[in-house]
Amino acid sequence: MKKMLTLALAIAALATVNVAFAKADETTRQNFKEKVEQWKEQRQASLEKIKQQKEEFKANREKFTAERCAKINERVQERTTNFDSAGAKHTKVYANLIERINKFITRFDEAKLDTTTIKSHLALLQTKIDKFKEDYAAYIAKLKETKTVTCGHSEGEFKGTLLEARTLLKTVHADAADIRTYVRETILVDLKVLKAQLPKTEENKD
How many Cβ atoms are within 10 Å of 172's Cβ, its own excluded? Predict the structure, then answer.
């Protein structure tokens, strides 16, 4: 009888322990489930934050690009205006130069001097001036093109167009230098030689 009672007590105790373990397992599972939910919520919050940061970065970048675009366009416009003015001055100077040389040639012709050489040199000078005008126009066109590609285009495309404009500008400078050298070393030499052949009454006229 005592053995039966002891066995019953042992079974009851074991059942109590099993119930306790079952409750502990349920608590553990519940805690794990809650932690998983918390992790999911934290992960979702992190993803939302990253998304928001990306959108803010994109908005700031677009704003920066727009501001940069406006500044570049302003500088290009200013430079274009300045070079348009400079080009007009160069064109006027060259036109006056050609006119003045032609006046000298007229005087030399009237004095029955041989103007074949200076006329051929003048024709070549006009060719050089025409090249300057063409290269200058190409430079201005390319410079204006940089204005159109600053917005809505890649930075590489803008830099490429700007590099082309700078290359054209170097050509323009070279053209102007070539004209100056040719006038100094050829045209002025021709004029000096012919003026020396003028009669004394004509030599001092401008």
Answer: 23
Token pair of 91, please? 């064109």
Cβ(198)–Cβ(111) below 8 Å: yes
Cβ-proximal residues to 162 (8 Å cutoff; 6+ apart), any chain: 146
CA-CA distance, 198 to 115, in Å (whole number)? 12
Task: Determine contact, residues 94/179, Cβ cutoff 8 Å.
Answer: yes
Handedness of CA 130, 132, 134, 136 (dihedral sign): negative
Residue-wise pLDDT for 109-156, tens only, equals 999 999 999 999 999 999 999 999 999 999 988 888 776 655 555 555
What mean pLDDT value characterizes the chain?
A: 76
Q: How many angstroms separate the CA atoms of 125 and 48, rounded? A: 71
